[in-house]
Amino acid sequence: LVVTTPQQAAAEVAERAGAIALQTRQKILGVVENMSWLELPDGTRMEPFGSGGGAKVAERLTRAVGAPVELLGQVPLETALREGGDAGEPVVLSAPDSPSGSALRAIAEKLAVRRRGLAGMSLGIDTTRHT
């Protein structure tokens, strides 16, 4: 997974991390954008770190890989997420219906249903030796 925030600078670092993963023959499962927005008491969203970083990273990695790299989800900032982290309890357990808990659960569900393909896997066949 490549994790970024909406900020341009963070997106550039995440893109470089993805490029390093590709150079070391790691498979990129997708992109997660953290701290995407802060939901205000009146229901509006404030984007203190800007927007679009996760989508930009997914788009650029898609071009680099030559296959779709999905933006798996965006996780909002909220008190429940921080409190769960401080307490050592994942927000998906401590506040599963919170915006961040719901976002993380949706990301996990996307990852859980992905089947691993055979591309890049060793088949245990040696074509250089003849018996």
Give an overview of the whole structure.
- Keywords: ATP-binding, Nucleotide-binding.
- One of its GO terms (molecular function) is 4 iron, 4 sulfur cluster binding.
- The protein is an alpha/beta fold and 131 residues long.
- It has a single domain, classed as Rossmann fold, CATH 3.40.50.
- The chain contains 5 helices and 4 strands; from the N terminus they run E-H-E-E-H-E-H-H-H.
- Strands 1, 2, 3 and 4 form a 4-stranded mixed sheet that branches.
- A hairpin with a 5-residue loop joins strand 2 and strand 3.
- Helix 1 runs parallel beside helix 2 (53-65).
- The termini are far apart.
Summarize this entry quickly.
The protein is α/β, with parallel strands linked by helices. It contains five helices and four strands, in the order E-H-E-E-H-E-H-H-H. Strands 1, 2, 3 and 4 form a four-stranded mixed β-sheet that branches.
Overview features:
single chain; 131 residues; alpha/beta; Rossmann fold; four-stranded mixed β-sheet; YlxH/NBP35; 4 iron, 4 sulfur cluster binding; Mrp family protein; NUBPL-like
Produce the secondary structure layout.
Layout: E1 2-4, H1 8-23, E2 31-39, E3 45-46, H2 53-65, E4 71-77, H3 79-87, H4 91-94, H5 99-112
Parallel strand pairs: 1-2, 2-4
Antiparallel strand pairs: 2-3
